[in-house]
Design goal:
71% of the residues lie in helices and 0% in strands. It has 164 residues and is mainly alpha-helical.
Amino acid sequence: MSIEKILHTLTKLEMLHKSLLEIAYKKTEAIKIGDMDSLNQLLKDEQAHVAGISQLEQQRQLEVTDYLRAKGIAPTDNPTVAHVLENTNTEEEKELLGVARNKLLLTLETLKHQNDLNQKLTLQSLQFVNLTLDMLRPKPDQINYSKTEVKGPSKDKTYFDSQA
C-alpha cells in the first residue's frame, strides 16, 4: 500500500484548515468593528468547516491504520502520520509525508494563535460591555425605595436653589 491516499487527505486537511484560518482572520475584523451579523455568519461557516475537518480526520486515521496494518504493524489508539514516517521504506515517501505534515502543522499553529487572539478580543469586548453597564446602572445607595427621602450629593442649598 502506498502513501498516496494519506498524502491526499493531508493536503485536503491543510486546505480546509487554511480556509478555517481565513474565517478566523475575518472573525478578528468582525470582532474589532462589532459586526455581529458578520460574526454570526462566520461562526456558521466555521462550524461547517469543523464538521468537514472532523470527517477528513477520521478518514486520515483509517488510512494510517490501513497503511500500518499492511506493513504488519499493530495500530495504536491514535494512529498518526509520525507512525507512518517511522515505518516508511523510501526516502521519497518520507520526504513527501514530512513536507505535507509540516505544512499542516504550521497552518494549525497559525490557526491556534489567531483563535487565541480572537478569544482575547472577545473577552476584552465583554469586559468593555460590562464596564459600560456598570457605569449606567444606578448604585444601590442611589435607589430610593421608601419614596420619603431622596438621597443626593448634598442637602445644602446652592446658588441654583436660592431665589434670584
